[in-house]
């Protein structure tokens, strides 16, 4: 299965979906993109796999998915999720320092640090948040002068609002480790810390104390893809980060990322990212 990766092809990348619903079979498989993404659940239930963690989705939940973070939503067939989604490029967010104690990307940085991507809103806060979303929808529907700029300004308001909420909620969730409610989360964490090793279906099933067949079925239900594809994607994303942050030779990066050979690394990287490792490094180092 080919990886799905959305790219910023526009000089003004911003997109908004208001109160959309999808059948489970129409959801994208595990994927990532160059945009940040804010998802608000209006109604319905399901699960949401983000990075190495599986969350429940319920009314009033907000998920903030930073760019280049793998994720996959699984709405329940008998209670489909209705959600609004804001996609926006990091380049659109105002980063000029005005107050040294705050920036609009504060919430994104905090979420990346703690790896906890969910904020649950009280009924009162849901009303406030839904007003933001309704205002974006109104601006984009009426298409008055500067409507997209207005929508982006409201997105800044949303980021400020979530930043204020996150100080208490994310810190508490991180301390209590509420995200370890699913037995699969330990498997995701093990994979993340052992990508260089020889990870097999039988090894993971043994660690989870389930049969290989049961493990394979549950894993695909959660992530939307099989174990081999998932491992290749995780190793590719790790290599992508190393290509950007280090000057290590490509062969060494292939080894650090867990690929069994440099040719396999080149084939897999090009399949998922759309360019060679050297080509990606050249592009990001400009």
TrEMBL record:
Pfam families given in the database record: AraC_binding (PF02311), HTH_18 (PF12833)
ATP-binding listed as a keyword: no
PROSITE patterns in the record: HTH_ARAC_FAMILY_2
InterPro entries per UniProt: AraC-bd, Homeodomain-like_sf, HTH-like, HTH_AraC, RmlC-like_jellyroll, Tscrpt_reg_AraC-type_HTH
Keywords annotated in UniProt: DNA-binding, Transcription, Transcription regulation
SMART domains per UniProt: HTH_ARAC (SM00342)
GO molecular function, one term: sequence-specific DNA binding
Source species, domain of life: Bacteria
All copies of domain HTH araC/xylS-type, residue ranges: 185-283
Record carries keyword Heme: no
Family annotation (PANTHER family): ARAC-FAMILY TRANSCRIPTIONAL REGULATOR (PTHR43280), HTH-TYPE TRANSCRIPTIONAL ACTIVATOR RHAS (PTHR43280:SF28)
Record protein name field: AraC-type DNA-binding protein
Species of provenance: Gracilibacillus orientalis
């Amino acid at each position: 299965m080919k990886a799905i990766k959305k790219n910023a092809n526009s000089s003004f990348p911003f997109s908004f979906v208001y109160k959309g619903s999808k059948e489970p079979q129409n959801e994208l498989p595990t994927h990532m993109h160059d945009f940040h993404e804010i998802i608000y659940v209006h109604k319905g239930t399901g699960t949401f796999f983000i990075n190495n963690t599986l969350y429940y989705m319920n009314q009033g939940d907000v998920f903030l998915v930073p760019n280049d973070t793998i994720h996959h939503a699984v709405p329940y067939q008998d209670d489909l999720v209705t959600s609004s989604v804001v996609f926006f490029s990091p380049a659109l967010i105002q980063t000029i320092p005005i107050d040294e104690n705050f920036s609009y990307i504060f919430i994104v940085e905090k979420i990346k640090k703690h790896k906890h991507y969910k904020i649950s809103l009280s009924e009162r806060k849901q009303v406030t948040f839904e007003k933001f979303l309704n205002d974006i929808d109104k601006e984009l529907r009426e298409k008055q002068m500067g409507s997209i700029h207005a929508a982006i300004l409201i997105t800044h308001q949303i980021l400020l609002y979530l930043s204020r909420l996150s100080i208490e909620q994310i810190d508490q969730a991180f301390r209590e480790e509420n995200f370890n409610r699913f037995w699969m989360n330990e498997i995701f964490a093990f994979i993340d810390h052992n990508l260089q090793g020889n990870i097999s279906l039988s090894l993971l099933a043994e660690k989870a104390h389930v049969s290989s067949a049961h493990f394979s079925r549950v894993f695909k239900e959660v992530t939307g893809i099989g174990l081999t594809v998932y491992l290749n994607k995780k190793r590719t994303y790790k290599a992508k980060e190393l290509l950007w942050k280090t000057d290590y030779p490509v062969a060494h990066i292939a080894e650090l990322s867990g690929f069994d050979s440099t040719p396999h690394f080149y084939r897999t990287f090009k399949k998922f990212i759309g360019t060679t490792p050297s080509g990606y490094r050249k592009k990001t180092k400009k």
